[in-house]
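pipeline/complex-builder :: batch 7 item 3
reading input block
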Amino acid sequence: MPSGVRGHPVGVQSGPFPLHDPTKETDVEHTLPALPYAMDALAPHISKETFEFHYGKHHQAYVTNLNNLIKGTEFENLVLEDIVRKASAGIFNNAAQVWNHTFFWHSMKPSGGGEPTGALAAAINAKWGTFAAFKEAFTKSAVGNFGSGWTWLVKKADGSVDIVNTSNAGTTLTSGDKALLTIDVWEHAYYIDFRNARPKFVETFLNSLANWDFAAGNFA
Ligand SMILES: [Fe+2]
């Protein structure tokens, strides 16, 4: 279960995110969830070096900061999703970044990209007409997301799909939207492999990395 339950790091997982088991103990520290693939599995698109920093340093730092910040607070024994929904300021920022990054790792896979099929494809076509038009809209949104943040494909309460930008640690967990797929557009996500070329990073994500099986599982 990716990061949903404290002290129970994920292995290679498939199925709906976050594979949450609320019956598990919650009196241990949050841990960095395992990646769903090896650190070099997305190369040459995203390098092992990027994972060593983005996952090994940045994602780990959010976990460490969260554990330090919640000690002795009302959040100490809550599962991650509940902390994100209830906290503010530093605790929210670190908790949301832990969740967002785990969701992002699952939003990619080796030999990803391509197009969704089935009900998700139908929903995308209903919204944008064609998958190409969706890609154009997603790219425009991600490239135009000013500063640091996240761009999401979401399922709205009415069952339709949409593209949503959040800033900084902003997350769909605190809105009525269900996350289907996300891209991290903080500069630390792409600077080692793409330098300042965010458009190339977004293009690579859509063409070679996006995990449409994961998105379809979330949509179902
Ligand atoms: Fe990040």
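note: Residues 1-15 have pLDDT under 50 and may be disordered.
queue -> next item
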